[in-house]
Specification:
homodimer; alpha/beta; six-stranded parallel beta sheet; two-stranded antiparallel ribbon; 16 helices
Chain lengths: 390, 390
């Protein structure tokens, strides 16, 4: 087991009716003027907006609203919001939405605390020292941003999507009612399931052999998500399945499934440059295409671990041939993602072969940097993985 | 899945050499004068005391020392320490030890914050509103107090052991180096294993059917602890086994294995009055005797769950007879505890039959209160369970 630091300060209120806790909880923490951050307005159609604002109003809290966060949130919008938040002197950001809205809130918070351009904070290489509080009312089970130390923002001018990991961006409080995900579309539900699984798979598939408790917790999460996915797709209002996906989204990315293990996250790094260049690519869909190809390319570095994954999560019978078990497991993931309605080839994702060079160059800074993780990958490796994903 | 609140603010530093982080971390949090709390002095023999004080000294922190915490920590000692801490105007308590030392630190902290007699705080029924910061340097994997919201204190004048659960007593930071548990005796290692398993079993064995992610995480933890136990007993310096036990001790009692489930903790409630009355009974040893008897008495209320436990954790083959599987699982736990060198009968624990009445009366307030949990238990039920434990 590697040394690790574990830090999950986010206080979670989980279950039916937790919207009522929002106002009292923010008030008890001493906040007075909230910036309510949200996306395209679906929270108004579902009635969640009314519940949130009613709770704020009843607690006597003041708030301003900045809606309109786009999927793959943009740095230009973060900058606009930042100006307004400074002027309005808010003291808390409440993100009502999924990963994009929460990530946007985190970027604004870092800008507010550090008086620096938010893109420079993310890409400048110097970790800021101050933070500004963020909370989340979750509406999509996917990114895990409601408890995570990471956020990802797109600079649309240069088609670059980049993330920053720091303990400072973990939300202080999260309100998670699975009913608020009943209206998530089948496609977005599928993207979420892949994203949740990937947050654990990226921590599970490492060269480490010796963090068995963490690995077993990871398997517990993967099996539970695997089972809940089709149930939620068949019956979008199945409370138990939606609950499993929602709680798994948080546990999958709050650090728990990586304790004592080497940190990789290669597939995420590969994917960011697909959805950075092609704005219409959903993050989960990109991961669905790239994971099986990446796995097929690197599994030989730790056949035993891929075979264990196949057995424990995909119920592949263990035969004498460990390599065959490993490969059957990778195929089973590909089949499973397809069964969720996810794309599993770059063609289905809408990525033409003539874009490969540009994307591989972005990820490897024109072949000058390797992608870290399970196995360090060069530009040539990436091109080979893209081929496997065709 | 039941609604739940999840709150694990304790920042954990885990692994070899984390003692070096103590001074810098406390200093970064703004603390200046520490009360160093410990037990019988084993930390001086092992060299841990030197490492801790060196780290405090290097960070320029001032400290006082209050050693001598006894197993099943006593309210009289808590009161004594409280007086000194008030006089010395400390601003942080650093508990270096296991559950007894950390629980003692928590009771002192609650007294300091609330200017009230600490026994009255625990038993008074009115939850205090203020807190005082505690940190832990863990030396025994068992109680989980390093991340938990609970603490248990014994009032030796009236032979009563009582606990209080409040979010306010969760330590702010914990330093966990598995090497610091290498010198824990085989008996105490066994007690710890039983206690860790019980913290999860008490959350797992509930009437709930529908928190499958939580139940699978619980099984992952139980299987890992089951495997690590004999390895640590055979080779006390096996770093991986000691790591698994240490991290499991925290995860087992920080709330994770109970998310979305009914809270019971019946066996703990039963045990407290055994180790309250008989000061020489170790908590883990008491649990080892009482769990199989309790389980045999109540399993019919949820045969399915006990059968699942037998299958998933104790590798009992699932036959057609669910009840037989459940019973085989309970027997397997009893055999496992015995294999660790733990007592599994009240006779082995040194409890004479003529003490049963007194203990059952204590637990049920002279037959006026039922013990809540899986099944509500009356005094007659307790006496029947004691019989099964003979």
């Amino acid at each position: 087991m590697q040394n690790f630091m574990y830090n999950t300060p986010t206080q979670v209120f989980f279950g039916r009716g937790v919207e009522k806790e929002i106002g009292p909880q923010l008030k008890a923490r001493g906040y007075k003027k909230i910036m309510l951050h949200y996306g395209g307005g679906s929270i108004k159609r579902t009635g969640l907006y009314d519940k949130v604002t009613e709770s704020l109003r009843e607690a006597g809290l003041d708030w301003i609203e900045l809606g309109g966060v786009a999927p793959n949130p943009k740095i230009s919008f973060v900058r606009e919001c930042l100006k307004i938040c400074r002027k309005e002197q808010i003291d808390f950001i409440l993100a009502v939405g999924g990963g994009s809205v929460i990530d946007s809130a985190k970027a604004i918070a870092m800008g507010l605390a550090n008086d620096k351009d938010p893109w420079e904070i993310i890409t400048g290489g110097k970790m800021p020292e101050k933070t500004f509080p963020v909370g989340a009312v979750l509406t999509i089970s996917a990114a895990g941003s409601e408890m995570s130390n990471s956020h990802v923002i797109t600079n649309e001018e240069i088609h670059m999507k980049r993330g920053l990991n720091t303990e400072m961006v973990r939300p202080v409080v999260a309100f998670m009612n699975p009913e608020n995900t009943f209206t998530v579309s089948p496609f977005q539900t599928g993207c979420g399931i892949v994203d949740i699984m990937m947050h654990t798979l990226e921590r599970y598939l490492t060269p480490d052999e010796d963090a068995i408790l963490t690995d077993r917790i990871a398997e517990a999460l993967l099996v539970s998500v695997k089972e809940a996915g089709p149930v939620a797709l068949k019956n979008p209002e199945d409370y138990e399945a939606r609950s499993t996906l929602m709680w798994a989204s948080s546990l999958s990315h709050n650090g728990l499934t990586g304790c004592g293990k080497t940190f990789g996250f290669t597939v995420h790094k590969l994917e960011h440059d697909f959805s950075g260049v092609f704005d219409n690519i959903a993050h989960g869909a990109g991961l669905s295409v790239l994971f099986p190809a990446w796995a097929a390319y690197v599994y030989k570095d730790n056949v035993k671990k891929f075979a264990r994954l196949a057995e424990k999560v995909m119920d592949i019978p263990v035969g004498e041939d460990e390599e065959a078990t490993a490969l059957a497991g990778i195929q089973a993931f590909k089949d499973y993602f397809r069964s969720l309605g996810m794309p599993v080839t770059l063609g289905e994702l809408g990525v033409p072969a003539d874009a490969y060079e540009q994307i591989a160059n972005l990820t490897t800074a024109n072949d000058t940097k390797k992608v870290p993780g399970f196995r360090e990958l060069t530009k040539a490796d990436l091109l080979a993985i893209y081929k496997l994903a065709e």
